[in-house]
């Protein structure tokens, strides 16, 4: 591989990396409301509930049990968010899902075939546009994912 080809491939790899970062930023943006709900609304409810558990008439075990029960909604919601985001990252951000992985493999295959045919510039442009389409498809999934999380944690 000549120096120019190597440099071009590095540039394309950097652009792809930036595009993947766009997915990450978009995911964070879409989840801001959910995170605020978990971190503020549910945590606030937890602390209010836990405060009410401290009653001199209760035993230490009763207080501990009461506080533990108060934490269930916040912990459950946080677990849902973390689980769904981990699934999303596996499917979209880390390109491990079958769909995105397949589409990126198709992009790579087209790139390799075009390189063999000595159409390097076209191959590079096609690879970038193919990857961009795959990443954009992943970003379009985000609103549906957020709605699913909101529904699961009963967030209005």
Number of alpha- plus pi-helical segments? 4
How much strand content do the residues show? under 5%
Structural class: mainly alpha
Give average pLDDT, whole number: 80
Number of strands: 0
Radius of gyration: 23 Å
Give a description of the structure.
The chain contains four helices and no strands. With 156 residues, it is mostly helical. It has one domain (3-152). Helix 2 runs antiparallel to helix 4 (120-152). The longest helix has 51 residues, at 3-53.
Protein topology:
Layout: H1 3-53, H2 60-93, H3 98-116, H4 120-152
Helix pairs in contact: 1-2, 1-4, 2-4, 3-4
What key attributes describe this structure?
single chain; 156 residues; mainly alpha; 88% helix; rod-shaped
Briefly, what is this?
This protein has helices at residues 3-53, 60-93, 98-116, 120-152.
